[in-house]
Specification:
Length: 391
């Protein structure tokens, strides 16, 4: 049950509504390379337009250093949104100040305006009250629909709620319902799959999930740290030496519920064309590095996932951007899709893998927020959600 107010709980008719969306999308030149996040915001935008609101959208894009960066303008995103909506979308070359104020003032009801990148101002990441107040001055109501940024207390995600009534959009509601349900009351067996490079990024998640899951399946670079913690030589593989003690402690606490790869794909270089071979998990020879999980591991993980009722997956199983070392990630993606469990996939790389393998329609919920979904899995309260009005 979602305990925060949403746009259906308030009157939006003939109101100026500022929506914090997550338009942090990859660009190729001045074209949008992947519009998944833009499409995810359409239900909220369309609802507001149908109810004759003036819709003002704000978002960050990339990591400008608190000042304008021509490579990270949201203008191409506004143009792409106009194509998706099949109607004009206005663009303001700033998100606060006279330019934004004039554009918001001129916006008619039933029309859409995109403001320039919020991170072009240092006040965004600093959660500056003055920036939040200026953003709030553009509208009558604030809608938080950027789940991917909900774990950050920024001016446009948290600060603004001090100056305007703040409610959730449909995407936000959907994300919290799926992830909240999984964390508070998952159907068992509950299996978590964790990959990616670093154990340190996921220590809190592993600790929290150990209390709830039946098994945690480990892959990606983080498996190497667990191998080394058990005393296996891992050659030239990526390892976090500073996390070895933590890895040992987690292995001790988890026992057989933390599953590690039983075979791995090793290569001479970090390169798609490198000489490679599959070995059972034994000492990795000097000069070689682990770049993927092996076929026996995929089969073992498939067996565990087959009987699952709930699956969460965050992080790839190998260096899947190299086709030669993508078999583990795609194999696990196939196993998740084949399972009859409720499945939730979060994190940019895992989502990209699901999309590349064409399995997105067979996943229950694909989360738009990697960091935010991880923090929810850690049991943390996200500032962008806490700031919203309770029902």
């Amino acid at each position: 049950m979602f305990s925060k107010k949403t746009i259906t709980d308030v009157d939006v008719n003939k109101k100026r509504v500022l929506v914090r969306v997550d338009f942090n999308v990859p660009l190729k030149g001045d074209e949008v390379a992947d519009d998944t996040r833009i499409r995810a915001a359409l239900p909220t935008i369309n609802y507001l337009l149908e109810h004759d609101a003036a819709v003002i959208l704000c978002s960050h894009l990339g990591r400008p250093k608190g000042k304008p960066d021509v490579e990270l303008t949201l203008r191409p995103v506004a143009e792409h949104l106009a194509e998706l909506l099949d109607e004009p979308v206005a663009f303001a070359s700033d998100c606060i100040g006279p330019v934004a104020e004039e554009a918001a003032h001129e916006l008619g009801f039933g029309e859409v305006l995109v403001l320039e990148n919020t991170r072009f101002h240092p006040g965004e990441k600093g959660n500056d009250p003055e920036m939040a107040r200026q953003l709030a001055s553009l509208a009558d109501l604030y809608v938080m629909d950027a789940f991917g940024s909900a774990h950050r207390a920024h001016a446009s995600t948290e600060g603004i709620s001090n100056y305007l009534p703040a409610v959730a959009g449909f995407l936000m509601e959907k994300e919290i319902q799926y992830l909240g349900q999984v964390i508070s009351d998952p159907q068992k067996p509950f299996i978590a799959i964790l990959g990616g490079a670093k154990v340190s990024d996921k220590i809190g998640v592993i600790r929290n999930l150990l209390a709830k899951t039946d098994f945690i399946l480990i892959g990606g670079g983080m498996a190497n740290t667990f191998f080394k913690a058990q005393g296996y030589p891992v050659g030239d593989s990526l390892v976090e030496d500073e996390a070895l003690d933590t890895a040992r402690e987690l292995l001790q606490v988890a026992g057989s519920r933390l599953r590690l790869p039983v075979d791995v794909v090793i290569a001479k270089r970090f390169d798609n064309d490198a000489e490679s071979k599959v070995i059972a998990m034994a000492p990795v020879p000097e000069g070689w590095r682990i770049l993927d999980i092996g076929p026996e591991t995929v089969a073992a993980y498939d067996k565990v996932l087959h009987d699952a009722r709930t699956i969460v997956w965050n992080g790839p199983m190998g260096v899947f951007e190299f086709p030669k070392f993508a078999m583990g990630t795609f194999g696990v993606a196939e196993a998740v899709a084949e399972s009859e469990a409720a499945s939730i996939v979060g994190g940019g790389d895992s989502v990209a893998a699901i999309n590349q393998s064409g399995l997105q329609d067979r996943i229950t919920h694909i989360s738009t927020g990697g960091g935010a979904s991880l923090e929810m899995m850690e049991g943390k309260v996200l500032p962008g959600i806490a700031a919203l009005e309770d029902k």
